[in-house]
Amino acid sequence: MVHRRLFDDDGKGLDEALNEPGQFGDGLIVRGSHYVILDNFNNSTLCHRLLGEKLLLKSQPFISTFPVSPSEWMAKFPTQYSGLARDLPPNVHLLTLERLDHTHHLLRLEHQFQSNEQPYNNTVTVQLADLFTTMKVVDVVELGLGANAALSDIHRLHWNTESHGAKGRYQSAEAKMKSPFIVELKPMEIHTFNITVEYTI
């Protein structure tokens, strides 16, 4: 419920009226946007995944006064920057890049398409060593998704089931890395790493 205004107890356990008048006394107001995609299944799947990422992580405009004209500012100061040395494949999303200390960062990469969502449902590889513009990756330790343990230290329970269709589903992600610096991502997989870096500038 968006507008929760019950002037009498509704008998569902709260035992009191539920009145959220909002800032101006006219109830809580939520404003949003709806996007409608009119296309076939394959194209709409591609569109909604990439559009959803752009909407969630859209640029935030900031407005300020300038002591000089915009052209003078752009001539004196850099106005564009990317921390990536190259674009990631369209089906890969950099989910987390968090500095842990001076030389270690937490990195998560996500394959954001399902196995039935063409055309980007293929397995993809990402080279980590030279992925960033200002730092070189010199060591990689793969972690569990929660980043609280090395993946090599995680031992999953093995269950006896009648169906063996899921056999190998929880294969160690380290075995999927073609080298310490090249990770392979299958549809909907998320890989977590503790990367050691050297700064290049």
From TrEMBL:
MF GO annotations: alpha-mannosidase activity; carbohydrate binding
One GO term describing the cellular component: lysosome
GO biological process entries: carbohydrate metabolic process
Residues annotated as domain Glycosyl hydrolases family 38 C-terminal: 91-193
SUPFAM superfamilies hit by this protein: Galactose mutarotase-like
A Pfam family this chain is assigned to: Glyco_hydro38C2
Full protein name: Lysosomal alpha-mannosidase
